[in-house]
Hints:
The structure is a single chain. With 190 residues, the protein is α/β, with parallel strands linked by helices. It folds into 2 domains: 2-64, Histidine kinase-like ATPase, C-terminal domain (Heat Shock Protein 90, 2-Layer Sandwich); 72-189, Rossmann fold (3-Layer(aba) Sandwich). 32% of the residues lie in helices and 24% in strands. The chain has 6 helices and 8 strands. The chain has helices spanning 14-17, 35-45, 84-96, 107-116, 134-144, 179-189; strands at residues 2-7, 49-55, 58-64, 76-80, 100-104, 120-126, 151-155, 170-173. The strands form 2 sheets. Strands 5-4-6-7-8 form a 5-stranded parallel β-sheet, sandwiched between helices. Helix 3 (84-96) links the parallel strand 4 (76-80) and strand 5 (100-104). The protein is elongated and about 70 Å long. The model has no long low-confidence stretch (mean pLDDT 80).
Amino acid sequence: MRISVWNKGKEIPPEILRRVFEPFFTTKTFGTGLGLSICKRIVEEHGGNITAQSDSNGTIFVVSLPQGGMRMEDKKIMIVDDEENMRFLLTEELGEEGFHVITAASAEEALDLFEKHPDISLVTIDIEMPGISGLELAGMLRNKKPDLKNCVAHRLHTLQTGYGLMGCRRYVVKSTDLREFKETIKKLLD
Length: 190
């Protein structure tokens, strides 16, 4: 999808046009220079781009966004958690967002499912599980699929050091408020 905004105002000089998306760049006396930089960031976070062109006929800004946005149904997520109620809650929440979700109650089950589903896009792992820990599992999964970059470790309380070393890109605290968790998942899959 493309959206174009055009005006017949004066031409923006090339040396200024080059900088219009820079944060805090402004030609106005009382401007902050944040408007277009914020627009650019929002558009890019949605997988698009924004451009500006200017000549003697006026200035045009073009926003291009992917058709239909991100297709969550194409993204398969595996949730690994020994607590059944947490697996259910995460499956419900992520399912409502359109993700295809599979679950595992243990590291051993996760390893088996990982072999059967090579198209898994992201794995969320509870750090504290009986037997093989979540951190150990993250390392094992990275050994099986070195390009698996999207691994989220979660637990109920404070952060344990070392999660990044075991192959997890992001750590999220497990709680009943899942907004941050869902946003992290979306950003990692974008």
